[in-house]
Amino acid sequence: MAGADTLRDDAAIKPLVARSDAADRLVSADGPLADMQIACGGEIPGLIAAPELLELVRKSRSFGMRLGRPVVMHSADGKLEGWVEVEPDEEGCSIRLSDWHHSERAGTNANGEETRIAIENLLAEGVVWLDEGQRIIALESQAGDLAALVKRARALRGDHWTRLFDFESDSTQKPAIWQARSGMSVRVEGSARAWHLLLTTANVGFQILLRPEGDVGQDGGDADLLPPNLLRDELAPALHDPIRRIIRQAEAIRDRLAGPLPGEYRDYAVDIVRAGKHLRELADELGDAEAIEHGTIEITAEPIRVAESIESACRLLQVRADAREIAFTMPQEDAIAMADRRRALQILLNIIGNAIDYGPAGGKITIGLVHEGKAVTITVDDEGEGLSAEDRIRMFDKFERLGRSGDSGSGLGLYIALMLSRAMGGTVEAQAAPGGGNRFAIILPAA
């Protein structure tokens, strides 16, 4: 079957180990890890080429603490996945990959990568066609501010594509191919716009997709005339009043405050209340997602007592938990984090609310709190069905609901929680909970 993965027989026999230095360069690695580094366009020694591993190593070194989480590393040849533990020291980091397996890919890339490339194709305003040696064949574009680049491509036909662009990094060095494969920023002569460059494979040779980044400059053709935060600042607030009135009137009907009512009509009112609240939450979540993508989300860092935020979140969710007979186990410790109080509460409401919705009725949710070094970690353990390592990463994607049906969510809650935590200098990770279930770790900077 096209696109199927073939698992290697030597998967997970023993952990793989590697070392990185203080500049996040991979200096040594066991076989499959070394192969992945090369397949991603890197070298040994050289900067870690798998973005997923590089992110975890940088985070561990920045926090000065040992971190572990499931990681899936992709290359054109396949993927390497497993549980990665990174421990920093004075010289760099020790990397250990356990419970791993390597799958070799035949045919097309994974669905997520296919979708990403399809979207980039739709948004691209320029395509550079390359041969198997990544030498320029032709450039297609209808954008007026790329006319100079089209002319330059004709003059450089047969040269390596890197001669076409001004890179935002050190332009005297040839950029690493892995960086172009994962996407990078470039400047184009004659254009006031910043451009996103993505190198992908084509039927024969390669292609480069060029799409504009951020706001369109005055010479960038058709400008986007819509305000950057149209949904959050204008549409969502405009929806609040009519939705609030609908909910209030439906609640009056539901509670029979307007007089006797047959049971079936009361059930209709209950559905209206539920749908109204869902619509209100969806408008707020879409507004937050829009602000995050435009970089206009408002974050104000201050010292906060984390235990108080946890208690507030559980109190707000108590009715929802009682409806499913779910009990909270609260942390006995307290810690001071440097965070936005309102956004930290929003993250907790999303994470704990998910545990209520997807954990078993009659179960419990255990919340822990640990202050280690420069980080404060809040853990939320549920007793729900354990997720795979891949799902624990995929669930943070925008609009991702892991195939769940119904009206229980928009698929934005975890995405927003992750983006907000990163905006505050932290992160959110999903792990397997000790004894079964799932654990969410909310990591915030310590005050």
Distance linking N and C termini: 53 Å
* Fraction of residues in H or I helices: 25-40%
Q: What is the CATH level 1 assignment of the largest domain?
A: Alpha Beta
Question: What percentage of the residues does DSSP assign to strands (E)?
Answer: 25-35%
What number of domains?
A: 4
C-alpha geometry: globular
Tally of helical runs: 12
Unreliable stretches, pLDDT < 50, 5 or more residues?
1-12, 106-110, 170-175, 215-226
Biggest sheet features: 7 strands, antiparallel
CATH topology title of the largest domain: Heat Shock Protein 90
Average of per-residue pLDDT values:
78
Radius of gyration: 25 Å
Assign the structural class, choosing from mainly alpha, mainly beta, alpha/beta, alpha+beta, or little secondary structure.
Answer: alpha+beta
Describe the structure.
Mean pLDDT is 78; it is low at 1-12, 106-110, 170-175 and 215-226. The protein starts with a strand and ends with a strand. The longest helix has 32 residues, at 263-294. Strands 1, 2, 3, 4, 5, 6 and 7 form a 7-stranded antiparallel sheet that branches. It has a 6-stranded antiparallel sheet with strand order 9-8-13-12-11-10, sandwiched between helices. Strands 15-17-18-20-19 form a 5-stranded mixed sheet. It contains 12 helices and 20 strands. Helix content is 36%, strand content 28%. It folds into 4 domains: 5-105, Beta-Lactamase (2-Layer Sandwich); 111-212, Beta-Lactamase; 230-294; 302-445, 2-Layer Sandwich (Heat Shock Protein 90). Helix 6 packs antiparallel against helix 7 (263-294), helix 7 runs parallel beside helix 12 (413-423) and helix 8 packs across helix 10. With 447 residues, the protein is an alpha+beta fold.
